[in-house]
Amino acid sequence: MSLQTARVQPQPQPQPQRSEPRRRLTPVTAPAAARRPRLAYAALAVGGALAIGAAQMGISLATTQDAFVLADLNIQQHELGLQKQALHENLVGISSPQSLAVKADGMGLVVAGSASYLRLSDGKVLGASDGANWASTVDPNGATKVGNALLAPPPPTAAEKKAAEEAAAKRDEAAAGTVEPAGPPVITDGLPTPTTR
After folding, report:
1. Among candidate residues 97, 106, 113, 91, the one with its CA nearest the CA of residue 141
2. What gap in Å lies between CA 38 and CA 44, rounded to an integer?
3. How many CA atoms does the CB half-sphere of 192 hold within 13 Å?
4. 124, 89 contact by CB (below 8 A)
5. pTM of the model
6. Given CA atoms 72, 73, 77, 83 in this order, what sign does their dihedral have?
7. Whole-number Cα distances in Å, 161 to 154, 167, 173
8. Tell me: the pLDDT tens digits for 115-135?
9. In the beta sheet, which residues pair with residue 127?
């Protein structure tokens, strides 16, 4: 096939274009009604917000309550620590050698001059084998007694003495008879008013 014959060949006929269907126009007599928002969605949103707010308030109140409980427990722990310390000091005072010597003397026990030992393997007494006489070599209540602050209560302070005297005076007053309570003041010139300038 030559170039000339190819040029001479007829062109295919163009297909006619399709015409678009005509749109039908209709007049609008009334505007379309706008859709109202759904009430259920609004109620759900408001309810969700209220539930979140209530949950936050509840958590806040719970943590605040826990803070108060923790503070009370810390105070209680401090008080128990002070009581433990006081009881430990009391125990140290009671178990001191001076306290034991005073209690032993009160029960009639005496201190011997020299120590004797009992050997358990054969039951033999080692050391001075004579018994103690009824006179003790140590007198815990004598002139050589050393004061022990853990055994004797501390002397009362001036404030404690004053409080004790006031309590005694109140008891005496209550024992003397019933005291009439003071009545309201008598008003003769009308109601009292403040002086202003």
Report:
1. 106
2. 10
3. 4
4. no
5. 0.38
6. positive
7. 13, 10, 18
8. 778 888 998 888 776 666 666
9. 116
* Tokens (6 digits) for 27: 């007049």
| 69: amino acid identity, one letter | V
> Which DSSP helix (H) or strand (E) runs through 63?
helix 39-94
What's the 3-state SS for 25-43?
CCCCCCCCCCCCCCHHHHH
Residue with tokens 């084998």: 129
Rounded CA Rg of the chain: 54
SS3 sequence of 78-127: HHHHHHHHHHHHHHHHHCCHHHHHHHHHHCCCCCCCCCEEECCCCCCEEE
Total count of residues recorded for the chain: 197
User: In the block, which residue shows the tokens 């007599």?
Assistant: 29
